[in-house]
Design brief:
Number of strands: 25
Radius of gyration: 25 Å
Number of helices: 23
Distance between the termini: 62 Å
Helix content: 25-40%
Strand content: 15-25%
Bound molecules: alpha-D-glucopyranose
Structural class: alpha/beta
């Protein structure tokens, strides 16, 4: 069979028998052009997933009708955005890009009030705002909103869909791209599909993975990880009403969708286009590693997970091409890379950089960071990393054991050390963190804590030690400087720009106390804002320092679309990289990951190919004739030709 000929044949049949909503002639011609252009890819992917099912053509036809519907409902302003983005598809690579992730309630109270915070965001230089999931979800524990009961309804406490559209508009006017979650691996057990399944509706039971007894679940279970072992062992939950076992990778109230069923693909595409049409410019693909299950495997990162995401991406290219995907794959670095492609996820979190920044802070040694970045930093030039140091989740040590081994590091032991260090159990640790998801069978865990607390500020303030305070502030600025300069979209986690400390009050809240991630999901209080204005406070130094780095980034094109080269600095305490853009502008970055002075051979400056060099941060000139450069504890240098 020739797939292209079959694709052509199907497309012309679909167009001949179309049941699309009425469209103007012009709109129809745009839609048809995009459909024809993208159809071979979409068809190929769907055929791979569902071609063996007798009713494939039925689902294909109804999917195209869904795409037509989504396109015809797309507001005019967003269609203009589509055109604009098609002309400049790599908008996310600009030096002006700066992201922030926040919870609507913790940051502002609700969506209406968030509008009043736009000046705060623009003053900081934010151009990308990820609102943590704000959809209708179960009362009490909803996994921070990641259990969605209705994708088309906003959580009442935050506002309404109209408020969200209104905010999207206001953000657009302020030059801020809205980013929303696409929580497509699972729905909550209160979603209407799950309710119908519980009531015994077979059609909807096929939307999920449901089993009468343990026979099949037990077979799967052999190879599966446990994500939240502190909540429930295993990956399945017994549902009393349906009298069935349900696949629940995360919490028991989060039901994994069954993508081997084409009806699920089509239904979720409708929801996806609804979200796209609210005016977001990127969708964050939540837990995307888990969407395809294959017996005998760990059911993560399966080939067909990629096929599915590519198919979803084709749908966007047809109906809402201004929207890109951001991958949230917190998995082995080699697997993270596989999601990044112009036809799959154009953006991706960089969990390896995140984890290894913390690793290097703990060890004061940057070798694992350097080797790992040399291996895994380079991605397609049409895509971009989203670089972050903290987010709403725990930190998992997802480095490659083989790379570690080459440096004489035992991965397993090293993870244990890092957990000990960041939970403050290791003698001499500067960090205050909390262990998360401890697995009673193998002792594995991950780490929670706010950026500032993990970087030592909490402990330093408690012990009232000025030098420790100074060091923790310097650490905080250094790690921010890396995400701001290494290449990609820097993503701040709201509150970190002010150095907020752990908030332990979740331990008193029965809907939160079993999930320690709440320790770093902190309300932005007026007090925190005020404290950051107090010139004597550490928070003031942090907030001013971060702002200054942002300002420098946004002034120099080399921080935008440039190539990054990770450099072996010759000093294990110093992390180094160079950047170069097509205008031949260059940047050399040096970061001292230790609390002692460090020297480095001036030869490293040769890459800048110039005698007169300026450190953008200190504004000092560097004399390359000196044989070595000295960096103060935790100092960062952003070096350019002068
Ligand atoms: C993602 C989210 C996390 C959530 C999980 C399940 O990893 O970041 O917060 O618990 O998916 O939706
Ligand atoms: C695991 C998952 C990741 C999720 C996290 C939530 O690390 O791989 O997707 O965000 O758990 O804690």
């Amino acid at each position: 069979m020739n797939i292209l000929i079959e694709s052509q044949r199907s497309l012309s049949r679909i167009i001949k028998n179309e049941t699309w909503p009425p469209m103007s002639k012009a709109a129809r011609s745009v839609f048809e052009a995009r459909l024809s252009q993208e159809f071979p890819q979409l068809f190929t992917k769907l055929f791979e997933l569902y071609g063996h099912q007798y009713d494939f053509y039925y689902y294909l036809q109804s999917l195209v009708a869904t795409l037509a519907q989504g396109y015809s409902e797309r507001p005019r302003a967003l269609k203009r955005k589509d055109k604009q983005r098609l002309i400049e598809p790599h908008w996310y690579q600009s030096e002006d890009m700066l992201g922030m992730a926040c919870y609507v309630d913790l940051f502002a109270g609700n969506l209406k009030q968030l509008k009043n915070k736009i000046p705060y965001l623009t003053e900081l230089g934010i151009s990308y705002l990820h609102l943590m999931p704000l959809y209708d979800s179960p009362k009490g524990d909803s996994d921070g909103g990641y259990a969605v009961s209705d994708y088309r309804k906003v959580n009442e406490q935050l506002g309404s869909v109209d408020d969200l559209k209104d905010l999207a508009n206001a953000l657009e006017k302020a030059g801020i791209s809205l980013v929303l979650d696409f929580v497509f691996n699972h729905t909550s057990d209160e979603h209407r599909w799950a309710l119908a399944a519980q009531a015994g509706n077979i059609e909807y039971q096929e939307y999920f993975h449901m089993f009468d007894d343990r026979a099949i679940p037990d077979q799967y279970e052999h190879n599966l990880r446990e994500i939240f072992p502190q909540v429930r062992r295993g990956n399945f939950t017994w549902n009393e009403q349906a009298q069935k076992w349900v696949w629940t990778t995360f919490n028991s109230f989060q039901w994994d969708l069954n993508y081997s069923n084409p009806a699920v693909f089509n239904a979720i595409t409708e929801e996806m286009l609804f979200l796209a049409n609210l005016g977001c410019e990127a969708l964050r693909l939540d837990a995307l590693a888990f969407i395809w299950k294959e017996m005998g495997t760990n059911c993560e990162n399966q080939d067909k997970a990629h096929t599915l995401i590519q198919a979803f991406n084709s749908c966007l290219k047809i109906s809402a091409p201004a929207v890109v995907f951001k991958s949230e794959a917190i998995v082995h670095p080699d697997e993270v890379l596989k999601y990044i492609d112009k036809d799959e996820c154009q953006l991706s979190y960089n969990p390896l950089l995140m984890a290894l920044i913390w690793e290097s802070l703990a060890t004061r040694n940057t070798q694992l960071l350097t080797s790992s970045m040399r291996k895994s930093f380079a991605i397609s030039p049409s895509c971009a990393w989203v670089n972050y140091v903290r987010c709403h989740d725990d930190i998992g040590w997802t480095f490659d054991d083989k790379v570690a081994q080459e440096l004489g590091i035992n991965g397993q032991d090293h993870r244990q050390f890092l957990n000990q260090f960041y939970t403050g159990r290791f003698a001499g640790s500067f960090a205050n963190g909390v262990a998360f998801g401890e697995n009673p069978s193998n002792g594995d865990c991950r780490v929670c804590g706010s950026l500032a607390s993990l970087a030592g500020l909490e402990r330093a303030i408690q012990s009232n030690n000025p030098q420790h305070i100074e060091h923790s502030v310097a650490r905080i600025l250094m790690i921010h400087s890396i995400i701001l300069s290494i290449g990609g979209v820097p993503l701040l986690y709201s509150g970190d720009e002010l150095g907020v400390l752990n908030d332990y009050r979740y331990q008193q809240d029965s809907s939160k106390q079993h999930d320690d991630r709440w320790v770093h999901r902190i309300a932005l209080s007026d007090q925190a804002l005020k404290q950051a204005e107090h010139p004597q406070s550490a928070q003031f130094s942090i907030s001013q320092g971060v702002k200054r780095l942002i300002h420098l980034r946004q002034k120099h094109a080399v921080f935008g679309q440039s190539e990054t080269q990770i450099i072996d600095s010759g000093n294990t305490h110093i992390f180094a990289y160079g950047r170069k853009n097509i205008a031949a502008e260059q940047l050399l970055v040096l970061c001292n990951f230790s609390e002692s002075m460090q020297q480095i051979n001036s030869q490293i400056l040769a890459s800048l190919g110039h005698d007169s060099i300026k450190n953008l941060i200190s504004e000092q000139l560097i004399n390359s004739v000196n044989p070595s450069i000295t960096l103060r504890p935790y100092e960062v240098m952003w070096l350019v030709k002068h």
